[in-house]
Amino acid sequence: MKVCQLCSVQRAQLKRPKTGQSICKQCFYAVFEYEIHCTIVDNKLFKRGDRVAIAASGGKDSTVLAHTMTLLNKRYDYGLDLVLLSIDEGIAGYRDDSLETVKRNQTQYELPLLIVSYEELYGWSMDKIVAQIGTKNNCTFCGVFRRQALDRGASRLGVDHIVTGHNADDVAETVLMNLFRGDFARLKRCTQITTQSTETADAAPLTIPRSKPFKYTYEKEIVMYAYFLNLDYFSTECTYSVEAYRGYARVFLKDLEKVRAAAIMDIIHSGEAYQAQEGLEDRASAPGKQKKPAQKQGNCERCGYISSQKLCKACVLLETLNRGQPAVTIG
Ligand code: SF4
Ligand code: ZN
């Protein structure tokens, strides 16, 4: 019988995807939860008394996030006031079903839940948008609308912070995508654990900070954790998922992981090292150098959301949708 490499007492029941160690289930839960706790504490993600919204889609990442945030908040007495925030994009057969899972999570974790919908905010559901524009740029619309919807929901809830279920695989994929595209401005920012919604890369951050407590947590371990603990989550892909480029990065990353699991962490560390190096160079070249003036940050003339332009990105997209149709403003 192989013995757990961590406790040396129990029988090993699994091979840990991140390290390849043979360990027992109890040690897996302990190490999984403790690493997330360390990410939260080392990066000082919250302060005592913060009201924190967990972005909840009903999928495995956000369900495990709701589970671990509730557990760690109690175990380590963070003193956080947790709430669930869901965005209903209006995708029949996908989001309506996954929101049923979130509603059950609300009861299971005893957390208040707010659902904000694209239909209510923008007058358009994703089903209507796809009926109008097809399935080519739908994720661009959806991404811009979701970012703003999360901020609007969070401000209704009066939260200080939003946490999302982005995991280590997501971050490594984003590093690879930015590298493949030669998008160094994004490459520099994409490994940050906490970000704030800005309409442009240079705009001053004004909205609610959002963090990724799973930044160093492997997707395979999230799936394992949810499976062993029999957590209630929804696992169907969005019907309109056509993000082809990310798909290539994902397949490439999974191939690398098969050969060497540490590749995921190493890609994230490379992105972080690039970010740190660029930060040093910015500081070194600052003396005597004319600094680019910060872009003036204002509010969208139409909906009031932060924007460095007259109209925010969502309102620009809405204009294209509403052309030839009754004008809809963000509610
Ligand atoms: Fe929206 Fe695209 Fe994600 Fe579907 S796959 S939820 S359309 S961003
Ligand atoms: Zn606007």
Automatic annotation (TrEMBL):
First-tier enzyme category under EC: transferase
Signal sequence coordinates: none
Enzyme Commission designation: 2.7.7.-
Localization, UniProt: Cytoplasm
Protein's pathway: tRNA modification; 5-methoxycarbonylmethyl-2-thiouridine-tRNA biosynthesis
Domain Cytoplasmic tRNA 2-thiolation protein 1 C-terminal: from-to ranges: 298-328
InterPro entries reported for this sequence: CTU1-like_ATP-bd (IPR056369), CTU1_C (IPR032442), Ncs6/Tuc1/Ctu1 (IPR000541), Rossmann-like_a/b/a_fold (IPR014729), TilS/TtcA_N (IPR011063), tRNA_thiolation_TtcA_Ctu1 (IPR035107), UPF0021_CS (IPR020554)
Binding sites annotated in the UniProt record for ATP: A55, A56, S57, D61, I87, G165, D170
GO MF, any single term: ATP binding
Keywords recorded for this protein, A-Z: ATP-binding, Cytoplasm, Nucleotide-binding, RNA-binding, Transferase, tRNA processing, tRNA-binding
Superkingdom of the organism of origin: Eukaryota
Family (UniProt): Belongs to the TtcA family. CTU1/NCS6/ATPBD3 subfamily.
Function: Plays a central role in 2-thiolation of mcm(5)S(2)U at tRNA wobble positions of tRNA(Lys), tRNA(Glu) and tRNA(Gln). Directly binds tRNAs and probably acts by catalyzing adenylation of tRNAs, an intermediate required for 2-thiolation. It is unclear whether it acts as a sulfurtransferase that transfers sulfur from thiocarboxylated URM1 onto the uridine of tRNAs at wobble position. Prior mcm(5) tRNA modification by the elongator complex is required for 2-thiolation. May also be involved in protein urmylation.
Protein name: Cytoplasmic tRNA 2-thiolation protein 1
Species: Chytriomyces confervae
